[in-house]
Every structure is written in structure tokens, then in C-alpha cells.
Specification:
By secondary structure, the chain is an alpha/beta fold. About 45% of the residues lie in helices and about 20% in strands. Helix 5 packs across helix 13. About 5% of the residues have low confidence.
Length: about 325
Amino acid sequence: MHFRFVRQLVLAAIGAFQFSAAVHAAEFPERAITIIVPYANGGQGDIIARAIADNLPARIGQPVIVVNRPGANGVIGTTAVAQARPDGYTLGVVVASHAVSPAFNAHLPFDSVQDFAPITTAALTEMVVVGAPTMAPENLKEFIALAKSKPGELVYKSAGPGSNSHLFSEWLQDAAGIRLIHAPYKGSGDSSRDLVAGVIHMGFDTLPGVKGYIANKQMKLLAVGGPKRSTTFPNVPTVAEYAAIPDFQANTWSMVLAPKGTPSDVVNELNREIIAVFQIPAVRQRLENTGAQIVGNTPAQARDMLAQQVKFYGELVKRLDLKVTN
């Protein structure tokens, strides 16, 4: 009798849970969704977040608000995402530096993989090497020659210690046998202004972030970061071609995340709706015009990719013998 009663309670609890999940899926979203971008506005993550925010409300019937919370190479804003209530109403858009940071900082306030519920990989984005317009070099080969003649004098920009732009620049220095000064910035806006003014000399950046500067001849396009030449600039060689680094790849990506513990039905619904936004012709054209290649994979695929990227960057940092911040 007691066993039968307990069994009935368990079955009732399971049924209530399933009913609750179904109701939750049917009712979500009931209010505005906030997307935290842990970087300054104008960068890759910001572009993706605003494309979502401009088009998702028409599908879900609720506002989508973008909040930029830059600082500490994305750690401040990403921590806010990790600590948010896991209900689907607070999301984040991170870029590849999210996977680089663990290799440089052993004491992040979150685990880059375990503390998040990936929704989808939004896009892959080309990175390029840009130089100040005031410099003589017109390509990476000439810049490397100049850097060798002035060891420790030329300055490169990054999105902060532990960012992918920092790591790629260190990788280039190691392979090319040059020594540059590191100037970390909170976001691409300030660093781009300083590069245009000639305060700093070069840096890796996303093509969407600097395409306008290149078109207006405010920056020099020194090289393409990916393993293949860009379709946007097919006549510009890659870093691998210029510096003889066969395995060099400096592309980046953006990913939409929710806090760990967000119900799977909510994650799946957000995945469907965000991918649907990316399929809107005007949105796809808008993003592809910036150099982004739309991905839109499943939550499981996004999680696997994130874990693989954390492993790749960790191994690269060890190979380059770069210091980890403790």
C-alpha cells in the first residue's frame, strides 16, 4: 500500500514536471529578452546581437534589448550572463576570445563551456591584419621587415590580454621572429581610432569592424588572417603566405549563449527563432556584406565547437609558452 502511494506520488510529480515544461515552452517569451554583448559596440558580437534584436521581435512578439558591457576582455559582461537567471530572458553573444581566455586566465569567474547553454554558432568571420595609414609598409612582408629593423618599437593593438587578437599577434611574432609592443583596448572603436591616427601601428581585427576604414584608405590591409584568401579581397595574400606559417588561421566566430540550466525547450525555441532570423534575406545580406559567414547550427553542435575551440587555444598558448594570468 505504501509502495503504491509513493509510486503514485512519483508519477504525479513527473507528470507535473512535463506539464510545466510544456506550458513554459508554450508561454515563452512573456516579456523582453536582453542580449548582453561583453564588448564595446561596433564589433563582431555587437553586429550579430543587433541583427537579432532588430528582427527577432517580429517573430516572438516581445522586445529584444542589446546591452553592451565591455571590460576585462569580455569577462565582465560574460560573467553577468553566467550569473543571470536561467530562464531564457538573458542571453549573451560572445566571440572567439571567450574560448581563448581560459588559456590565459586560470581563475575566470566562470567555466567557458560548462557554465553556459550554447544556443547556436551565429557566424564565422574573417580576420585581417591592418596597419596605420601613416606607415610605409603596404603589406605584411614589408611590415615584418620594418619590425625587424625596429625591434620593440612598433605597437600592435588587441581587444585585451587573452583575446584572440592578442594571441594571433603573439603567434605572428613568434613565427616571424619580430618583437612588438602590446597595446590592449576594451573595444575595437578606440583602437581603430588610434590606428587611423598612427598612434599604434598594426593589429588583427575582424573584417566587418575595419572594412569601412580600408575602403576609405584610413587603414592599410596588410594580410588576410584565414587559411585561404578572402573572397572580398582576393588579391591580398594570407598571413601564412607572407610569413611562411602553414598552419596559421586567424578567423573568429560569434555564438549566442544562455546561462547554464536554461530549460532545453527554451534553448531549442531560441535556436529555431534565431536561425529563422538569419534566414531572412535582408539579414543574411546585411551580415554577409560585413564578411560574416552564417552558420546557425544546433545547440549540441555549438557546444561541441566551443569545447573544441577551448582545447585548440589552450594547446596553442602552451606551444607559444605564453604566460597565464593567475
